[in-house]
Amino acid sequence: MSNQEPRDLVSNLAETLGAEREELNQAKTAEVVAHLERVIANVPPATEFTNTRKYVVLGPLLSIVPFIMTGMWFSQGKPGVGVVGLLLGLFGLFLGYQHRNSGKTPFMRLTRTQLWADSLSAPVELADVIDFSVKADMLQTTQTLHLRPETPLPTHRAVRQVFASQAMAFKGKDPRITIMSAGLQSDGKKLDCDDMAAILDAYIQAAHAQRYLQQLRSQG
Predict the structure, then answer these.
(1) DSSP string spanning 179-190?
(2) Which superkingdom heads the taxonomic lineage of this protein's source (predicted)?
């Protein structure tokens, strides 16, 4: 799911404050401040996310058929093919073992101003996000946050795990943060792409509102 809709209401209010600041009376300013505060209060101070336990179940299940076929191939005098089946079965068990702690420890956290991820060296300012998408396939869920061209990016470290939950930073003309995970859940509730997109959008709105509110108060 891609969300390229501009943060119209908050942005327009901010532009109005910048261009017509002298024409705003006290009542109008108070109305704008109240709206910005409502946008900020619309999200919890922080929300944490874990991956799901899909591979804890899927890994061992994927090993059943290869192990059965391995026995058949060896009994039929086909050891070469049997070894391949054995390796596939062991991979399924290894995958399940690697993900044995999935769903227990948060790897990502959103606040009203920032995104934190375990594999990033520093948080990402959500007010610098200009576009984002949330997509999922059979293997992983991928979130991509596109940032303003001048935005400084954190570094990232590789996570040594098959289908690991990790965030990566990409520099260039289109600076972006890509976050991959084996599904997503928060407070034990599994999230689909639409759920996560709605949460991201609300937090990005809050971050923009927070920045505009700070600018307004500094001018006052």
Answers:
(1) EEESSEEETTEE
(2) Bacteria
